Structures are given as C-alpha cells and as structure tokens.
Amino acid sequence: VSETQTHQSLEAWFRAHGARIRDELFEFLRIPSVSTQPDRRGDVARAAEWLEQAMQRVGLSAEVHPTAGHPVVLGEWRGAPPGAPTILVYGHYDVQPAEPLDLWHSPAFEPEVRDGRIYARGATDDKGQLFLHLKAIEALLALRGALPVNVIVLAEGEEETGSDHLADFIAAQAERLRCDAVVISDSTMFAPGMPALLSALRGIAGFEIFVDGPSGDLHSGTYGGAVVNPAMALARILATLHDENGRIAIPGFYDRVREWPAEWRRRIAELPFDDAGFRAEAGVRELGGEREFSVLERVWMRPTCEVNGLIGGYTGEGSKTVLPARASAKITCRLVPDQDPGEIARLFRAHLERVTPPGVQVRLDYRQGSPGWRADLPEWLLGAARRATRVTFGREPSIVADGGSLPVVTDFERLLGAPTLLLGFGLPGENAHAPNEWLLVDNFERGMLTIAILLDELREVTPA
Amino acid sequence: VSETQTHQSLEAWFRAHGARIRDELFEFLRIPSVSTQPDRRGDVARAAEWLEQAMQRVGLSAEVHPTAGHPVVLGEWRGAPPGAPTILVYGHYDVQPAEPLDLWHSPAFEPEVRDGRIYARGATDDKGQLFLHLKAIEALLALRGALPVNVIVLAEGEEETGSDHLADFIAAQAERLRCDAVVISDSTMFAPGMPALLSALRGIAGFEIFVDGPSGDLHSGTYGGAVVNPAMALARILATLHDENGRIAIPGFYDRVREWPAEWRRRIAELPFDDAGFRAEAGVRELGGEREFSVLERVWMRPTCEVNGLIGGYTGEGSKTVLPARASAKITCRLVPDQDPGEIARLFRAHLERVTPPGVQVRLDYRQGSPGWRADLPEWLLGAARRATRVTFGREPSIVADGGSLPVVTDFERLLGAPTLLLGFGLPGENAHAPNEWLLVDNFERGMLTIAILLDELREVTPA
Does the interface predicted TM-score (ipTM) exceed 0.95? Predict the structure, then answer.
C-alpha cells in the first residue's frame, strides 16, 4: 500500500470511530483525578484503573504500579519485527485543581464541546494528549493487527505535584523501560496550524539570601548613619547581579552556556512572534533584558537571575522609623545547557563574598537545582516527526522552547539514555492551569493521526 | 547674700522638704496618664488636674486648657522686677504605655526606690523631670517670696502621641506665651555625672517608593529575561542612593548642610565615647557610614537616607517562581540644618527620574517632613546654664545632640521666636519607653537645684 493509502485508511478509521473515541475521552475527563488534593486520592486511583482498562482495550498488556504516592500505569506491546525500535510514550493522568469553580462556564469535570473546543479540566493537560496516543495505537492495531514498533506507555499520576516518585520508578524499572526514544505530548503548538517540537527547557537554581545587621530593629534616628542598613545592603548586593545591559554580572555565570545552532536561531527568528502581543500579555509598556537577543531568545535560550520576592524591616501601614535587623530575598536563576546548578550556587556564593559590604553578614541558602535541557534528536526520530506533521498539518514542526522547567525530560534522558521528542497538540491560551481549560477538537483529531503516522514512520528506521 | 550662701540655703530647703517632695512625685507617678490608650483618657485628665493643683500649691496661677485632644496645663508667675526675662518651661505629663506589664520588677504605676533609682512609668519621661521644675520654683518662692524671673510652665498631655494639638495651642496663645527662652528637661545627660545640653536634633523626610512592572505577578520561567523585574529595579534604584563611601548620592542633597562650629566638633570629639559600646548596643560587629566623620558626628550632625522597610513578590514559606508585579520601600531621610524637607523631596524625585530603568514605573510618595534643628543659644542663656551645672555637677554641660526628631523644639522657635535650652537630667539606659523605667534619685535632686540656680542666674541678665 502506498503512503497516501495508509494515511487515508487511518483517517477513515478515526472518522468511523470518532463518536466512540469522544465518549471514551469524556469518561476519562469526568474522573476528577486532582493529585494535589488529598480527598481526591480515590479519584486518582480510579483514573489509574480506568486507564489500565483503556490500555487493555486498545490491545496493550497493562498494569497499575503502586508508588509511595499515586500509581504509575504501564502499558506495553512488544510484537514488532526484530530490529524495530522501542518507543516509550509518557503522559500523566492527574490534573490540576479545578478551583475557583465559579469561574467555569461549564463544570470542570463535565466535558462539553463548544465552538470546536473540548472544555474540561485535563482536556489538554494532559489527559486529552495522553489519550490520543492510545487511540493512535488502537487504530494501527485495528487496521493491521500489529504495530510497526514496540511501544511502552508510561502514565503517571503525580505530574502536577512534582513527579516526586517518577525518577525512582524509572530507575527501578530501567531494564523494562529501555527504549530508543521517548515521545511526549504535553506541550503546545506554536500557534494554530503550527505544530512544534519543544526543543529546549530552562533549568533552575533556587536561592534565598539573608542579610543580617543589628541584633534587633534599631531606631533609625539614634543609629542611622553609623550602622549599616541590611535592607540597603541587600539592595546594593542585588544591584551587582546584573550589569546595566541586563547581563548577569556574576563572574563565570555564562562560562558553560552552550551556543545554539545557527539554524535553530534562524528558525526561531522566522517564527511569527509579536513583541507587542508579548508586552500586552505581560502587562508592560516596555521590555527589558539583553538587547542583542530577540525576546524569544531571551526567554528560551538565555539564563536569568530573578528576584521572586524580597522583604525587610517595617512593611505595615504608615511608617515606622526603624533601621531593620534583617532583609532577605528569594532568587531563582533559570539555567540553560550546560550550566550546572551546583556550580552556579558556588559562583553566586563567591560573588557575594566579593560584594558584601562590611557591617552586615550575608548567608546564601541553596534551595533547589535542576539543569536546563536542549533536544539533541537523531535524524531518524526528527525526520519521522517532520514527515508526520507534513501530512497532518501541511508543515514541519517549528523549533520552540519553554523558559520554564520540566524535570521529567532530563530524568528520561539521564536514566534511560533515550532522546525525547516533545510534540504537543495544545495551543497557547488553553488555560491549562486555570478555569475553562480546553483543547481544540481539530487538534485532538490531527494529534491522533500524527502520532499514528509518526509510529508508522519510525518503523523502517534503525536507531544508531 | 553670697552665691554660696544662696546655694546652701536652696540645698537646705530641698533637704528639709525631701520626703514631702518625693511623696508628691509618687502621687503624680501613680496616675496612669497613658495618652495613647483611649481607655486611659480619664487618667490623663486626672493627671492634668493634679498638675494644675500642684502648680497652684507651689505659688503659680494655673489652669487646665482643653484641646481637641488631651488638655494643656498652664502655670504662670509674673511678679519679677521690670526688665527680668520671662522663661517658659515645657514638659509633658502623659506617659508611654507600660505594657508588657509582666516585664516590670515592680508595678509601673507603683513608684518604688531601689538602688538609688526611682522606678515608675514616667519617672524620667517626663513627669519626674517636669516636676523638678515645679519644685525649683517652689523653693525659690518659699525662700524669697518671689522669683527672679517671670515663669510660664506649659505641660502637655500628648507628647507620646505626637503633640498633635500643641502647635495650634502655641499659635493661638502666642501673645500669652511670649518669652525670652524656653527651658526643657526631657532629655538625658551624656553619662553619669556629665550634664549635657541637647543642642541639635535631626529632622526627617519620609517617603514611600513604588516600582510597578507587569500588571500581575508573572511566571518567571515564561517571562524572565525579557520583562524587567520590579524587585530588581527597586534594588538597583536603592543602590543609587549612596556611593561606595556611604555618602548620599542624590545630587544636591548636601547643598544646604550647614557646617558645624569647629568648637562644637572639638567638644564632641572630647566626649568619652566608646565605639565598642555603641557597636554592642546596636548588636553589630562593624560600623558603617561616612568614614571622615566620627560615629557621634555621623548620628548627630550628618543627614541619612535609610530604608525602613521593603517588600515585593512572594515572601511566604518556600519558593514561588514569580516575577513580581510590584515592589516598594519605605524610606526616611534624617535631615540636618538647613536642609528643607520639601526640597529634599524634589531632589529625590528628580534623582529617581534619572535612575529609573526602562520597563518599570516609579512613584514616590512624600509622607512627612520636619526640618532639623541646631541650638543657637545667646550667651546670657548658655552662660547661666554653664554656671548652674558647675555648681551642681562640678562641670559645664557637654554639647550633645540626638539623631532623632523632636518637632516641639522647632515649633517653639518658629512660633515664639525664643531660643530653647534642652537641659535634661535623665541618663542613657533609663528605659524611657520600655519596662522598668527609672530616674536616679541623685539626678532628680541635683536637677531641682540646677533649675533653681539656673532661674536665679538668669535674674540679672537682660536678653537682647
């Protein structure tokens, strides 16, 4: 059969089974599997069981694996011809809380289609995007009785609480989970009609800095002018973290920042991105940061050093003329490859030792750290993704990134040594963590077809 | 009679009446005239009436003047020979709250003498020091039937709440209150045995600065690097307020700072001041500020610009990776003559316009202002004070200052045009606003004699 015939038969199958698929998806979305809320524990377990059965129905062998937190659901199909690759699909069946409930136009756990959108908590993040993988597998199995590749589906129930037990599970099951690539649909396209490969994520290094001066708040009249003010000292210290061009001034901070491929920067520059729209979203009149980089480059490929909060002295109503005993700031650095969070902590500490004025003591607490990530996809994997979206969206996926962090990606690469393809079918503005979460019906349907074609495209390639 | 005989007869009178004087003082101290506590309003009124009668008993005509707040008690004696000066004695009969009560070793309003100290709320601030003026007047009237000078005693009941109605009262009664000098005992000596003239007070200009960025807190991953962080912008702005030598870097800030007389600086340098003691009091290992000035000069004669409090973004437990929408700081500048608070506000605002980075909006609220003060005492007044303390303490008063503010002093000079002599008999560490307030019995007794001699010394001088 020709490629076109393959695609047409897949499309026909999805069309023929469309109503049932939607019913099943809605059943999944109706389970309020809110992992952050202890009284939803039973619902999270119910969603895991529902998913196990759904996997079995499509033809996977499946089981629920308990963890110290919410369970992992694992589905497998290992009947591909010798030499075919093994693909691990990751997704999560837990969802964000629906509160505030009164802001929803239809109930969060009563899925409803309006204006071509599926409205429900979890529609895009991530139940809908996880479920379309199962349906792609079902279509291939139904049409051919076999899959072109071996498949492992790993669905966790703790993504929204920080995936606390996932790394341990992967490490413990590493043999079983060995694969040639990880595929994840838990991200967005760049814009309607523009599929995207999420190709870089920033890491993080979180700190709290404490500046201590006098043993208690002092009268600013009696002591002011001779005792160093910790709030002022904190301000002076924070002001040393950047130069006047918005570049971080901690010596050595950029030493390990890996250059981006010129090709990626060129493709990012070609994205239809609107600074004015970004400013409007943020609610600012003017942007800042490193002028020699575009706005998307600043948030995707450049590290940052931001104050998340600061406090010191009297902050109530009116005035109180104290010279404060202490001031502190919470700071997070967003990191990019190949910056190492621990090394950044050391550089930060060394910088503070240089810039701390006499008369105060400074302590830096290093709170958390995870490295940044950039996709390094082999051509067999990247090419398959390009061919798949050319069929379903008429174009290759854009290279995009996210300024935030997604530790699970680095966990997969670190523990399984497999490249990770992040191909999502959501859209910006889908309220993933807000009331009225939605997913475009059209993207859900194109997503099923894209994944089916992707698995098919991976058939004939042999990973290195 | 010789001077020595005069002093001896005064001493003998105070000794003879010592027990009764103490009984009366204790009666005064027993009235819990806490002006800040609404449920003590009756006690404040009772203290005013008690004081009116006490003034009448010593031979003054006296009356209670209601104000919109607590009353003013006014006592007068105007029988001095033609050409004799008129001296206005100011003090206050209201006291600080006594709380926390459980930290007092004897009840706050049950005066008790222990180790040569009178323990009670108001003992030094200011009932004890006001009362010793009445007894000095009584002694002179008792011994001679007349005072050497005309005397007005003005006692207010709102000092501890900010003297809200005093300036209006003085302005309304300016004719009646016209005088050649104001004498106040509401301050401390420099050290035991070292009487002091409080000769300078710093003024104040109070501000709040708001730095606004995005319309709401943003995700620091999604926007960090391209949106200016208001907390960081605030830090960078605050860091421009001083140079690296601790000097205020607001252009024009020092333009009106009046030089101190070399003689004053020399006398301040000779004071037995211990940097280590000051550090220990403040609880710091090292001092800061302008190195070319001594510690006492820094807190007494130099202006400051201090952060009293700052806040922005997430300040709760743990971390929250926000790019804050706003950050703010409360700032007070301590001012010295001839800095003008309004002009300082204008200079500050102009400075902010220069240093505010693009991407944020800055607003400066000017909250309060009062100028600094420096005594400019005529020789007839200063000489009389010197001669008085030579008799009672064996030395001339030291020239001292206070880094805080005392608006009433500038009010008297502004509204009555009279020089103000601040000669106090308290001691550092007397817990004026804390539990276990005390006044040395010896200083109370020397205080009465000093004031009696001072009034006597003022007899023969003719003010300019």
Answer: no
